[in-house]
Amino acid sequence: MDSDRINVCVNSEIGKLEHVLIHTPGAEIENMTPETAHNYLYSDILNLQVAQKEYSYFKGVLQKVAKVHEISDMLADILRNNTIKSNLIERICKAENVAYLTDYLKSIDAEPLSKMLIEGVHLKDISTIDDNYFSLLPLPNLFFMRDASFTMFDNLMISNMATKVRAREAIILEAIYNYHPLLEATVVNPAMKYSSLETGIMEGGDIHIVRDDIVLSGKSARTNMHGIQALVDHLKTKPGVKHLIFQELPPLPESFIHLDMVFTMLDVNRCMAYKPVIMNSEFKTFHITIDGQKAVGKEVPNLVVALNDLGVPVEPIFCGGGDDSFFPAREQWHSGTNFFCFAPGKFLGYARNTHTIQAINDAGYSVLTAADVVNGKVNINSYKKCVVTFEGNELSRGGGGARCMTMPVQRQAVDW
């Protein structure tokens, strides 16, 4: 266990990365079948060996630029405390209506229990009670770390998930954030604190921290107006004037589930955008100014205009090249806007989105491969602006990209 405590602080999407939490996909991926994939929000099943190979290069790049912490290891750490272990098991079993598993799970040691809470539990003598193979379902979405939580300034924020099948992810992360000795932060579940659990939903893929006074949110299938209002109420507790800009997203198809599937920050003056949504007046954009307990909202032309008006002069690079061909839609489907910054102007994304990568290159960013970075053939520090591409032909089929797969908990400040 890393003995240095992390003072949680994320005041932007692009600040130099210091600490990040991840989850390497494991056996939970193989615990899906074609018949059950839809229940886990997948449209297809993934090949674990291929996904892990792709992920290893993604993780390898992160390890070159920051300290990387595996959630499964952190979960095992807190499960060594019997009180925490008992309380977490009871909460999970109650939430999933599997009280008959409580005593059994409490008898398992920390490391195997950590795996079971992620990969699922199958007991031959009782798992067929509800005609399910698993008594406790696997969590094949967990490697998309950003959905169930997000970091907002000095708070670790717990999402109120839109679907029950992902609720355990948030429960597990909340326990880790509250009890792991590595993390120094106040944990907040906005939906529980400011909104009814029945009405307020939000997921971290929709929430972006642009600057210490600017937050973006998607209004999507996974984050509703009650969730956005909870964010407003949370921002009222913070000093100074804050700005929340929220963007309406199309309800379908499922590739539009979060804001980061149509927009991400890349640099102090660049963003990646899916033009048919971000630059389309059909999908409304609203700017809420929060000053103390007062919140005033207005409609604005789009996210790019709103950010420019607040002194963040971003110029969009368009997913797929932004023309009228099929490329933007094809590449957006496979997370073509979903990039993760590890420093201003340096970011990770899928190599498969070739037209998007070409547009980034045309905008003045060098294109590096994750394999070359991991193997030491190129040095990221030699480049001022670059995109590091990694193979994601299998990972992208899960419905997320590089930003989805990361939970940054500490970044350096940005010189705006």
Write a structural description.
This protein has 416 residues and is an alpha/beta fold. It has a domain at 6-206 and 325-411: L-arginine/glycine Amidinotransferase, Chain A, CATH 3.75.10. The protein contains 15 helices and 20 strands. It has helices at residues 27-30, 48-65, 71-79, 82-95, 102-106, 110-119, 145-148, 167-179, 190-194, 225-235, 275-278, 303-309, 327-333, 354-362, 370-374, and strands at 6-7, 17-22, 67-70, 149-152, 155-158, 183-184, 186-188, 207-211, 214-219, 242-248, 263-265, 270-273, 285-291, 294-300, 315-318, 340-343, 346-350, 366-369, 386-390, 407-411. The strands form six sheets. A five-stranded mixed beta sheet has the order 8-9-10-13-14. It has a four-stranded mixed beta sheet with strand order 16-17-19-18. A three-stranded mixed beta sheet has the order 3-2-20. Strand 4 and strand 5 (155-158) form a beta hairpin. The mean pLDDT is 94.
> Which of globular, elongated, flat, extended, rod-shaped describes the shape?
globular
What's the overall average pLDDT, rounded?
94
Q: Quick one: biggest sheet?
A: 5 strands, mixed
Give the low-pLDDT segments: none
Task: Produce a short descriptive summary.
This protein is of the alpha/beta class.
Observed structural traits:
alpha/beta, L-arginine/glycine Amidinotransferase, Chain A, 5-stranded mixed beta sheet, 22% strand, globular
Give the SSE map.
Layout: E1 6-7, E2 17-22, H1 27-30, H2 48-65, E3 67-70, H3 71-79, H4 82-95, H5 102-106, H6 110-119, H7 145-148, E4 149-152, E5 155-158, H8 167-179, E6 183-184, E7 186-188, H9 190-194, E8 207-211, E9 214-219, H10 225-235, E10 242-248, E11 263-265, E12 270-273, H11 275-278, E13 285-291, E14 294-300, H12 303-309, E15 315-318, H13 327-333, E16 340-343, E17 346-350, H14 354-362, E18 366-369, H15 370-374, E19 386-390, E20 407-411
Parallel strand pairs: 1-6, 2-3, 5-7, 9-10, 12-15, 17-19, 18-19
Antiparallel strand pairs: 2-20, 4-5, 8-9, 10-13, 11-12, 13-14, 16-17
Helix pairs in contact: 3-6, 3-8, 4-8
